[in-house]
Amino acid sequence: GCNVAILFMTDGMRTAGPETDEVLRLINGSTQRLATLYDRDTKIFTFSLGTQADRSATKEIACSTNGIWTPVDDFDGDLVGAMASYYKLFALGLGDDTEFTAWVEPYEFFW
What we know:
By secondary structure, the protein is of the alpha/beta class. It has 4 helices and 3 strands; from the N terminus they run E-H-E-H-E-H-H. It has helices at 20-38, 56-64, 79-84, 87-92; strands spanning 3-10, 41-49, 69-72. The chain has a 3-stranded parallel sheet with strand order 1-2-3. Strand 1 (3-10), helix 1 and strand 2 (41-49) form a beta-alpha-beta unit. Helix 1 (20-38) runs parallel beside helix 2.
């Protein structure tokens, strides 16, 4: 089946809503339903913005789906580059043998 990528960025400051454990239960339930109903493997790529961000929840979310967590510093961090790099993980699994090479570019969508 196809892969599903969710990119989630946050300043890491929870101001409202459920605790991390409840969010993880919701995420895991939703990704399992996608896998069962539609044969979709869902990975969540999380980005913690700023040096003051609480990074533990975003790490847990990414790890729970075999995604990747990336910290992005306040002023010298490359947010665009960090968020565009998720496609590399999917490109790794495109070939069945060691002779396979895939060249991919990120898709940029502008409103």
